[in-house]
Amino acid sequence: MLYHPRSEHAGIVEDYVHDFERFKGKQLEKLSLETVEGAELAKLYDAVRYPAILIIGPDGILQKMWQAPTMPLMDEVDAYLPSFARDLTRARLLSAGR
């Protein structure tokens, strides 16, 4: 999640990340736009409104992005995040079919 820590939306971001971890059991990474890494990530994926939630695959390809003013439902974000249990179940099913 890209955001400005010293802005009016910082509290919304902190609450969202906290609640997401509490209800979904997964962590969202917060990244300040005031860091080089945050600014470069925003530029690379063309995020122009903040806060922005980016789902980036292991290959670096952007899977989904939501930008302010509306925050997505937690279920929407969760659907794009990898799930170890789901992936393990899928792998077992595929290997059992061989």
Q: What does the overall shape look like?
A: globular
Structural class estimated from helices and strands? alpha+beta
Radius of gyration: 15 Å
Low-confidence stretches: none
Q: What's the short version?
A:
This protein is α+β, with helices and mostly antiparallel strands and 98 residues long.
Key structural traits:
98 residues; alpha+beta; Glutaredoxin; two-stranded antiparallel sheet; 4 helices; 15% strand; globular
Write up this protein.
This protein is α+β, with helices and mostly antiparallel strands and 98 residues long. It has a single domain (2-96), classed as Glutaredoxin (3-Layer(aba) Sandwich), CATH 3.40.30. 45% of the residues lie in helices and 15% in strands. The chain is built from four helices and four strands; from the N terminus they run βαβαββαα. The strands form two sheets. It has a two-stranded parallel ribbon. Strands 3-4 form a two-stranded antiparallel ribbon. The mean pLDDT is 89.
Secondary structure topology:
Elements: E1 2-3, H1 10-24, E2 31-32, H2 36-44, E3 52-56, E4 62-67, H3 74-80, H4 84-96
